[in-house]
Design brief:
The structure is a homodimer of 606-residue chains. With 606 residues, chain A is mainly alpha-helical. In chain A, 69% of the residues lie in helices and 1% in strands.
Amino acid sequence: MFYFCHRVILPCDPTVDDKLFNICMLSVSLVVMLILAVLSRRNKLCQGFTRGSPANFLDQTQQKGMAMAVFGLVFSKLSMLVIAPDPLPFSKDTSADSKEYMKIMAIFYYPLLYYPLLVCGTLQHKVGYVLGALLSFSHFGVLGWQKFDCPKTPEIYKFYALLASLPQMGCLLYLCVQFVILFVKGPKTDEDLDSSYYTAYVKLTLKKKSSSPLTSLFICLSVFRFPLKLAVSAFVSFVAIYHTALLLVVLVVPVLHIVRAGIDENIAFLLLGFGIILSDDRMEVVEIVTFYTWLLEVCYLCAVTLSLLVNLVMLMKSMIMHRTNLRGLYKGEIYSIYNSKKTIRPSRPGIVCWMGLTGYQTAIVCVGMAIQTVVFFICFLFLVFMMIVPVFYGRNLFVFDILGRAWPAWVTLLLVSALQHVATKFAFIKRDAGTRDLNNRESLFLLTYLLFLINVVMGLIVAIWRVVITSLYNIIHLGRVDLSLLHRTSEAYDPAYSYYTNALRVEISQSHPVMKAFCGLLLDMMVEGGRVGQKIKDAEEGIQENGPSKATHTRRIRSRWQLMYTLVHNPSLLGFRKHFQTTQTAESILNGTPNHTAKTNSKGTT
Amino acid sequence: MFYFCHRVILPCDPTVDDKLFNICMLSVSLVVMLILAVLSRRNKLCQGFTRGSPANFLDQTQQKGMAMAVFGLVFSKLSMLVIAPDPLPFSKDTSADSKEYMKIMAIFYYPLLYYPLLVCGTLQHKVGYVLGALLSFSHFGVLGWQKFDCPKTPEIYKFYALLASLPQMGCLLYLCVQFVILFVKGPKTDEDLDSSYYTAYVKLTLKKKSSSPLTSLFICLSVFRFPLKLAVSAFVSFVAIYHTALLLVVLVVPVLHIVRAGIDENIAFLLLGFGIILSDDRMEVVEIVTFYTWLLEVCYLCAVTLSLLVNLVMLMKSMIMHRTNLRGLYKGEIYSIYNSKKTIRPSRPGIVCWMGLTGYQTAIVCVGMAIQTVVFFICFLFLVFMMIVPVFYGRNLFVFDILGRAWPAWVTLLLVSALQHVATKFAFIKRDAGTRDLNNRESLFLLTYLLFLINVVMGLIVAIWRVVITSLYNIIHLGRVDLSLLHRTSEAYDPAYSYYTNALRVEISQSHPVMKAFCGLLLDMMVEGGRVGQKIKDAEEGIQENGPSKATHTRRIRSRWQLMYTLVHNPSLLGFRKHFQTTQTAESILNGTPNHTAKTNSKGTT
């Protein structure tokens, strides 16, 4: 898989110095930010031009890809910090004392460095796209050039720096392509609130009960929209899985290679010191030990691969679970997720959890992978050194010896177990007129008493099986924040799960399709101008003509019922109703969702 | 707590030889069984005399104490087998080869030895009580005499045999007293089915909705009747906790004492060989090592005590959970226990699980205690040797050094965490007209992005905390079968929990209060004789007079509704309704529940 070379690799200084490049990029970024600030202020002054706000990058209305790429980029930088000799590019040959401080500073520096990329994508303006393309091209170009200059580094494993920078290069390349495409196509006009997804959801929800299966079918078939924050979390977790696997391999395998290369005839004496005699021939001892270290390496790589696969599968299952949870919460099924009645409303812990969720999930995936690797490694070691190797070489068959010597116990347990099942089937169950009932109760009691002690012994196997299955299940699911590892009555004590549920509550309160549909309707009204307050009120009550005809009256009554129905099924919308009186407050709800101007509007006009 | 003496204890042969005693007891038991069989057959022939059946000892109608004591006795014997030199009393100085077989035979022998005690209590007859008292007195007397003769044995710890036989003596003493009391008072006439518990339950269930809180109050206040099987399981678990704690102490502490007694000046050289220099003075090294082994012992005893207390608390919580589950299942709340719709009916796996449950639970408690002790021991060791001793002696402060050196990281994390909470409280939540909403979304997004990396670092702490809390929770709850240790969607994979739920289903189907009340009513009818089939039908439909008055008609309609109500809320009763046509089948339902003859009956007569 990997070929490690034991020659000393000299430190390599790339043509493009990292320090110089970072200073240049910081200055360029500063200029870019200033330009974008001016543009953004002009946007705010002339409302008609408004398209986006520079810091609105985590809103549902934004392109998911950009935010995902930037977060992935930043996380890649963090994971390279773990064993980097110089955490910050501004100082070379950092001393061990100041490394700690450097790392803390780096944690704050890198998000700042890549921030302009996010802003360029968020401010929906051609100038922004040009600047974004410029920035991402220079980042990508320099990184590529450096890696081409110095593919090998004197760090633990010569290709580690190259392999670790692959996700960064991928993210930067995606950003380049995306900025160019956006520049060519221009800012997209199909806004989040205009899309038919929300209105279709509301229309189907408001329909009569008879169409309920159709509703669910629609919601199932329509492409489900993940909240941006969850999509970012999933992508960063994916990047984290790559980096953790890479680190796990790179930190251990080269050491094993060095150990294997250093095995010589002295090993026989060393083992003799511990009373282990593998063979009388010293060369054979060397061969055996070399073979064992090779097996060790194979076991380790298998464990890392297994843990990698387990985490990828768990990530996919998490996504499915997120979708189920979101859909359930949209429908008001709060109990199934929280196991208690809680309101869906932004709360203080909720927002703190929402801010941290991506970070927490990533860290939990990393820790989970490390623990999984260790556990799987131990399991593989046991399997190989206690089962497979002894069977192949026919010696050290401890496990089989122990199992074999206990055969009377196994046979007894098997026989008793079979006896219980057979007796139950033929003697203790009576089928009569389609029902089942107990039969021969006295014999059942007698057998229960006589087999009580053997059932205690059988219980030991059940207990060991319980310990094994519980540990494995919990270790495998350690990386998932959407599952509690505790019993359902104590779910809230699992910190990861409680963060997840809190964050989800904030997410739901901000991206509920019914609310979004209503916001879209409200914006349509506002764009029309004039009599806005009245119009909104009318829209809410379903009145679009003021004619006093009977049809209007019927429609108004029906609309009011529909409004009540909506509010009853979506109580989180209730809080917003008081704002509908004036345009001013109506605007404040939409704080952060972009305004729409230049578009045709067919629903608002009569 | 314990004082161990290192003098050699000579093997002690009690005056009453175990082999001779067992042979005598077996013969006496055989005679007793024959007498009881004759008595039981006579009972069956003259139905009017019937009081009990010899093997009906696990029925709800039986005294709980007897069965609990005998099961406890049998289990005590098993737990003494674990380190006994002679598993069976018939052979002395068993060779290691045949010990395995002897143990398996002993597992079948001891339940047989104590079986007559159970039968004497179950067959509700004065002769049975006399024989039972005789048997239990001779068991108790001989055991007491043996222990008085030889309080010390050459086994691992001199008083182990004495301490381990305490639960046996307790159980036997209880049986003696109980048999004497029963003989004096005579067989109790207040049968299970006559008690007002069941009829009161049904009457309250059938009342109108308005009295619902009263119903629940009644069910809460009335002494809850545990099924006999669960009571036996709980008692045996209690005995198991005692035996496991005793074994855990006895297997380790004497070894530590021997090690401590053997510490001399050579230990300094031995430690030097490993490169450990505790002190330059050899005597001081001896003192330090002695002190450390003493600390080790203290840690171990603390761990055992803690695990003992944890298991006692868990046993009590289990009992509360059993009661909640049973009450819920009586009311038909199947979903909350099984997480899926399942019928409450005896099934093949259900009966097998019901037979094994006591044994499985006991074994799981034992394994749980052992694992808990090991884990708590490691925790205490870490606490004492890494925290307390270094603080007292001011050296080897590894843990504090590591924590202290990382102070910039701690301070940063604390500050960032505080920043997030403060910002959320004062900037990101807007309270308006009683609702809470997000405010300053752009700043929230900016902060989320900038603090992303530090949140990853914070996530590492969350992940470690999650691992710790999950492991501790699951290890503490390992001994409980009424809790699944897996996530609620995978509960069925936990073997212990799935056995418990299966067994509970069988238990419920046999001890449902509504069914019991109906069986009581049915027996009352049968005792009256004549027109039984018609009477039962009448009773079911609430008709007691055949007068065609309007009042009867109304009552009949109301009774039918009540019947329907009962059946709808207790669907498990539905299966029994087809049997109500003939006396023959009605009797077959009651197979095993004792018949009632000589008693006044006020309800059945008009």
